[in-house]
C-alpha cells in the first residue's frame, strides 16, 4: 500500500483545524446579549481573536500529542534519540506568522476603537453649550474679543479627552441625552443636568445618542455595562466620557470593574432602557419630584415627632464609623 504523502496529511489537518476554529469562533456563546450599537463591533473582534486562538491551540496541542505518540520510546530502545539541528526556515515561519497576527489584530483594534468613537472623546463642538458638565467651566463660543485667553484655555483643558466619544456617524452633533455620572464608595449617582433629576439608576431611551460624563469623588471606579460592551474609568479630578446608543429595551447591570475598597463587590446598580415614550413618562414624573418645593417647617416638625435629636444623630454616626470606617 502506497504511503500517503506528508503534504496531504498537512493539508487535511489544516482544513480540519480551520473548520473547527471558525465553528468555535462563531458558536462559543461566551458573551452576553448585545444591547448597544457598539456591541457588535466588539463581538466581531472577539470572535476573530477566539478563532485565531483556537487554531493556534489545536496546532500546538496537536503537534505535542503527535510527537508524544510517534516519537515515544519503544520497548527495547536504550540509546539516545537522534541529534536534531535547528531548522532556520521553520523557525522563521513560526516567528513570522505570530508577528503578522499581532500586527493585524493591532491595526484592526485601532479601527474598531475609532468606529466606536474612542479616538474622538473631545468632540464637543456642538454639545458643549447644550450640556455643560457640572462643576466645569465650559465656553461654547467666545462672546467677544475681551474674553481672556486663560479662560478659554482652562475651559478647553477641562473638556473630557478620555473615553469613548462620538462615533463617526454622529461627530459634531449634540447628544440626545446627557447624564452626569458620579462614582463614590460604594454607589453610582446619576444626575440629569437638563431636568435636575438625581437617581441611583441610569434611565435612558432606546435608539438615542447618550453621553455620560463620568467623575469620581474619592478613588478610581470603573463604569461597566457588559451588555453594552462598554467600560470606562471614573477618575478623581479627571473628567471622562462614555457615549453610546442602546439598541434593546430592558434592564442591564452596571458593575464597578475597578477594585475601589472593601465593599467594591456591592457597588452595583442598573441601567434601564426605555422606549422613547416610557422615558418621557419617567422623566416627567421624576422631574415633578425634583422640582417639588421643600417645606422646612414641616420637615422639622416631623423630625421632632420622631424623636430625632442631634445627640441621636451623633451616636449613629459614631456607630457607623466604628463598624464601617471605609464608607466614611
Task: Kindly summarize this structure in a few lines.
Helices cover 41% and strands 19% of the residues. The protein is built from 8 helices and 11 strands. The strands form 2 sheets. A 6-stranded mixed sheet has the order 1-9-6-2-3-4. A 5-stranded mixed sheet has the order 5-11-10-7-8.
Description of the structure:
- This protein has 328 residues and is of the alpha/beta class.
- It is 41% helix and 19% strand.
- The chain has eight helices and eleven strands.
- The protein has helices spanning 6-26, 39-70, 88-116, 127-130, 149-157, 276-290, 296-305, 310-323, and strands at 163-164, 177-184, 187-192, 197-199, 202-205, 209-216, 221-225, 230-234, 240-245, 250-256, 268-274.
- It has a six-stranded mixed β-sheet.
- Helix 2 (39-70) runs antiparallel to helix 3 (88-116).
- The chain starts with 5 loop residues before the first helix and ends in a 5-residue tail after the last helix.
- Mean pLDDT is 82; it is low at 125-158.
Structure characteristics:
five-stranded mixed beta sheet, alpha/beta
List the helices and strands and how they pair.
Layout: H1 6-26, H2 39-70, H3 88-116, H4 127-130, H5 149-157, E1 163-164, E2 177-184, E3 187-192, E4 197-199, E5 202-205, E6 209-216, E7 221-225, E8 230-234, E9 240-245, E10 250-256, E11 268-274, H6 276-290, H7 296-305, H8 310-323
Helix pairs in contact: 1-2, 2-3
Order of helices and strands: HHHHHEEEEEEEEEEEHHH
> Which strand order spans the largest sheet, edge to edge or round the barrel?
1-9-6-2-3-4
List the uncertain runs: 125-158
Topology, number of strands: 11
Which word captures the global form? elongated
The major sheet is characterized as: 6 strands, mixed
What is the radius of gyration computed over CA atoms, rounded to a whole number of angstroms?
29 Å
Count of alpha/pi helices: 8
- SS-based class: alpha/beta
Average pLDDT: 82
Percent of residues in helical segments?
Answer: 40-55%
Q: Please report the distance between the alpha carbons of the first and last residues.
A: 82 Å
**What is the strand content?**
15-25%
